[in-house]
## 1
Amino acid sequence: MTDVTTLPDRRLLLVHAHPDDEAIGTGSTMAHYAATGAHVTLVTCTLGEEGEIHVPALAQLAAAEADQLGGYRIGELAAACRALGVADHRFLGGAGRYRDSGMMGLATNEHPRAFWQADLDEAAGHLVEIMREIRPQVMITYDGNGFYGHPDHIQAHRVAMRAAELAGAEGFGPAKIYWTAMPQSVLEAGMAHFAGSSDNPFVGIEEATELPFCTPDPQIAARIDATDQHAAKEAAMRAHATQIPDNSWLYSIAGNFGSEFMGVEYYTLAVGEKGPGSGPYGWEDDLFAGLAVADGPDRSPVGAAGSR
């Protein structure tokens, strides 16, 4: 257990479903806050046992073969966290407590250890214990659709929000909760750039609003510009080699948009009050904006979580 009084004043908790989700969706944000001295805690809910394997030599690790991919991905996640500068990583309920459920509608959803089948309050209770220890002022997870509809992402949302509710009832819930998002304007710019390209990741999509993670710009609350951390994010993604091949469309976009794609991440604000921002929609550039620890150290015994 960590004594919260020995932790940095700013404490950020992220709840993700599988190894590699943290790097793809929030890697630059994590690296940014870790580099600026905040305590960053990553909680991953499963080992990603049902993931595809893009390294032929490791094909035998697949769920239908040796079923050892989850154990291998523990090492990949550790390497990704090192690349991001994040030292505090935990698996929800311990490594292997919950299993990757696979895509929605598959038989793997019914596995007795599938995260999709997890008892909500039991799973949330594991997260509450981490919140009790760390006392994060800010939490990041997915929206109610899990960003794109994966059952484990949806369940991660449910567990994170229930845990925040339970922790709040005890007086130490996060003051602000953000959900990962992608602005409509950014998606439209990407679609326009790749129109007619042979490696168009948006092929078959006519309008950005068809994408489940498209968010109208006015609904975005925060834009975290961590372009100076884009290399760390890419290194973290490359650490997940079984899941993200070298020819992935993610690297294709990065090659065209560079640090802007790798280094800028967006969020909606689900809980808490929006802090000062800028631009036409007042987007925050700091997830701690408006909190007591935003502009200077908070020396209260349990940090801003206890004095919000």
Note: Confidence is low (pLDDT under 50) at residues 296-308.
## 2
Amino acid sequence: MDLEHNQSTDYYYDENEVNGTQDYSQYEILCVKEEVRNFAKVFLPTFYTVAFIVGIAGNSTVVAIYAYYKKQKTKTDMYIMNLAVADLLLLITLPFWAVNAVHGWVLGVPMCKLTSALFTINFVSGMQFLACISIDRYSAITKVPGHQRAGRPCWIICVGVWITAIVLSIPQLVFNTVNDKKRCLPIFPHHLGITMKASIQILEICLGFVLPFLIMGVCYSVIARTLIKMPNMKKSRALQVLLAVVAVFLITQLPYNIVKFWQAIDIIFSLITDCETSKRMDVAIQITKSLALCHSCLNPILYAFMGSSFKMHITKMVKKYGYWRRQRQNPEDIPFDSDGLTEPTSTFSI
């Protein structure tokens, strides 16, 4: 992942690259992008700082609730907890990329590989867990209610999602390195450069956006039609939740994947042939990727905090924390037990 430079403009390069590899950043010999880097030095650290603080707070709360307070978990609960873990692991890479935007990559090649792979793993897995949540909600509302608690099939699905994301991160582990300009970016063998770069881009788009969006679109459209036919007066709130989930997904993910797809097409056909267009593409990828990261901050609100069950557990946690504070001030208080059993209700209430 290189947030300072866009790899779509690979038409400038040195044919005599040493060691049989092609460093696609060499096009800057002909296209100086100082203003793009200056924009990144201001925009990326500011945005990443806000996203890091907000996202860590929200997703940490979700993980804490599910790990320590909600004993009986449904399948949706398991997917939301895995989603929160993926978002947390994604967010902890942001300080590294913020420093990279200002000073270049100063942590060495191993950290370059690990951080890039970690970003890809958790970005892709997060999108796939969103699809899993939509499938589970579809099953819950369109079929006869049955056993909704998390079991072995749920764990198998979660493991499968993580394995798929890890496989997609292998190119970062293998090919990412730090070049002489202190940039962490993939450098492919010359004979694999164009084909592999384009293939990785398209595969990430398909598994990280197209597939989850199709699954969410089909599941939530069926759920919406089912809710509309129900005489329940509370269905309007459920429809609003569905609309918010789909709208946020499209607003945050669609622009980034459009730009990313254009990058892949440019890698193959070299459509961008002037410096100004290349600079605009650089800025576009920085802005749209940052917008896509907003989803990690919004997931706790969309999938956890809206649920009545989750709100109940937050209330218990706050009461327990408040009691702990009072106990430290007055040890003679009678203990308050907040660990009673709760019903395994679905967090994402629709």
Note: Residues 2-28, 332-350 have pLDDT under 50 and may be disordered.
## 3
Amino acid sequence: MAKKIRLGILGGGGDSLIGILHRVASQINDNYEIVGAVFNPNYEESIAFAKEIDIPTNRIYKDFDTLVEEELKLPKEERIQVCSILTPNFLHFPMAKKLLDNGFHVICEKPMTTTYEEAKILQAAQEKTNTIFAITHTYTGYPMVRQMREMIKAGAIGKVHKVDVRYYQGWINSIIHDKEKRSTVWRLDPKKAGISSCMADIGVHAFNMVEFTTGLRIKSILADFNYLYDDNQMDVDGTVLIRMDSHVKGVVRASQVATGEENGLAIAIYGDKGGLRWEQENPNYLQVQSDTEPLQIFKPGHAYNSELSLDGTKLPPGHPEGIFDAMANIYKGVARAIRGQEYNDGEFPTMLDAVRGMDFIESTVESNKKGNVWVELD
């Protein structure tokens, strides 16, 4: 077996959900070893956390700049090869830029940056250093999402003409209605989150799902946001009309105040021969619809699925796979890319996906601010 890839972690300490998700996912396929980290801005807390999860403390650094400086002093065969950035949004750009400029590969949480301009700067940096960059749109790692992509590519539903995707959560309800509380949450702070909360956090996942599954590019959007309170600067709910072509249209709906919703990402794609439906909370079921045939349900692990879907399936049919497995599939694809192995272009979202995501976020904000008008994406 190939030697494990040396992984560094930035952020994600303590009880961070995203930290647990990335650490577990990196271990699932035995491709990575965590060798260095800055888990927390507080060095003592970072050390304590490393001990808690049984990682050697000799390469737990006091801050990000020290990590880069000290790792570059090590022989190439010992230093960190790829870093996962799990910090709040405003730190993504400076960290990713320095890592790319110094030849490190990067796995980054979304959104990649806080502005589209920063995203284009990172794209240029990656092209210059020829490094691997992955943006963790986790849901692209689900076997049945990959099956949906391959079926559409193969023409199973014919020409796509309608897309409906929603991502509904309710978690911010307990915060947004309390003026004091909402001033303490970083996702509602433009200095830390950027220009958007809802669209940058979950709407961009829905946007990515449309382009990942259909293989089409969204060309223009019209957005309508809800901020709920005049003193709240960040969107917490929004509806976005999308145009992919003159006869291919759809809607992206995202909300952080959908009362009672947990992680309600769902996508439906309709073509002239059939339709496909998938829900994140029931990820092992892909509905295949037709005007002339009974409803079909595709499930993971069966021989009728595509090679890409089966590659992302670790268990026999009937054994549920979930979000840890989906993120692990992204890490597996990145490992293949770092090792120079052959891989399917659907195995992990790339720099292009990250840049397009930032273009989408900024365009939705612009559309809403201008009075809900159509805005062209690059």
Note: The chain has a mean pLDDT of 96.
